[in-house]
Design a protein that fits this description.
It is built from 14 helices and five strands. By secondary structure, it is mainly alpha-helical. Helix 4 crosses helix 8 and helix 11 crosses helix 13.
Length: 356
């Protein structure tokens, strides 16, 4: 069963010590676009891992609002609400600004400066071969993505990572090609100007593919998600009406759990012993689909009910939310300035007025 999110109380920063890693991990950076409400797939794919990492390493986690403009530049009316809701979800689930640095990307203007400098040395051919560039252009027909910002977003991503001299970036296997471009840009900096920033390594993390309500990958674009902010009633209604093994028409029909999206979610939210019992019960018709769904609902609610309570405590405290982002940005800015000083010096750029 999934553990309950941590309390919303803010703790003091604590020393992060690598634990038995072959390659020492000291600093980690990662971000998420505020493109809408967070769902269980986002939690399992990123947030759950971040909450663990913050207790062991120096972590920088940012809300990537500039990245959101790369595909949603035409309609920014929901951006502020999305940023606020993302911050609330992060805190409610257990990210602690006393243990990690949480900030808004656009609050640290050094991201833009390093993006510009890296853009000067990044070949266009590297960007054109990025598989996401062509894939998203083919899949998203309602928006014109033939823009400088969309083509160059991997450079901004490289700036996001290299700006904090991170030695590791948590990624799933499907994200490795994106990180590799950042590593290539870091190597190009080294080749042209000498040592500037470390070449970040991937911190491979398990990212289970959660199926949504309709059996496809859980995704906002498919409208098949269970959201972190959903009420208990909404969560149950979504689970109650989920599709199951299409061959199991009647209660007495045996089923195949591997063909059932409900059982896929049990893989992330139900402990091994209970999951084995459900698997056996499904195959022998010893358990009905509604009973199976009730178990899943109870386990997911263990996570979401606690997050819901945490969120309610935080929701009205605008001053606290603002101070978390302000303090996070200040902490991030201090490291960002150090990096830019190193890069400017390596590139022989003037750091002060040329004749000052």
């Amino acid at each position: 069963m999934e553990p309950t999110p941590a309390s919303v109380s803010i703790s003091s920063p604590e020393e992060k010590k690598p634990e038995g890693q072959e390659i020492p991990i000291h600093r980690i950076v990662s971000g998420i676009q505020p493109s809408g409400k967070l769902h269980l797939g986002n939690y399992m794919g990123a947030l759950k891992n971040w909450i663990d990492l913050q207790n062991r390493y120096e972590c920088y986690f940012f809300i990537a609002d500039w990245h959101a403009l790369s595909t949603n530049y035409e309609n920014t009316s929901l951006l502020k609400d999305n940023i606020r809701n993302m911050l609330l979800d992060w805190l409610a689930l257990g990210l602690d600004p006393g243990k990690c640095t949480i900030f808004l990307q656009s609050d640290v203007l050094e991201h833009a400066e390093l993006n510009l400098l890296l853009g000067m040395i990044t070949p266009v051919s590297w960007l054109l071969r990025n598989p996401s560039y062509k894939d998203q252009q083919e899949q998203i027909h309602a928006r014109d993505l033939a823009t400088f910002g969309f083509l160059g977003y991997p450079v901004l991503m490289a700036a996001d990572i290299l700006l904090y001299r991170a030695d590791h970036v948590p990624v799933g296997l499907d994200q490795l090609p994106h990180l590799e471009l950042t590593r290539e840009i870091a190597r190009r900096l080294l080749h042209l100007y000498g040592p500037c920033v470390p070449e970040p390594l991937p911190l491979l993390t398990p990212t289970p593919k959660l199926l949504g309500l309709d059996g496809r990958k859980m995704s906002k674009s498919y409208d098949n998600c269970i959201y972190i902010s959903d009420s208990a009633e909404v969560v149950w209604e979504k689970i109650r009406t989920m599709m199951t093994d299409p061959q199991r028409v009647r209660r007495t029909d045996p089923g195949d759990p591997q063909k059932c999206p409900v059982f896929n979610l049990h893989g992330s939210f139900t402990d091994d012993a209970a999951r084995k019992e459900i698997d056996k019960g499904c195959r022998t018709a010893g358990i009905g689909c509604i009973d199976c769904k009730k178990i899943l609902y109870a386990n997911i609610e263990t996570l979401l009910s606690s997050a819901r309570r945490n969120r309610q405590k935080l929701e009205g405290d605008t001053a606290l939310l603002g101070s978390i982002l302000e303090e996070g940005a200040e902490n991030a800015r201090q490291e960002a300035k150090k990096t830019l000083s190193i890069v400017r010096k390596a590139m022989k750029l003037p750091e002060k007025h040329l004749f000052g």
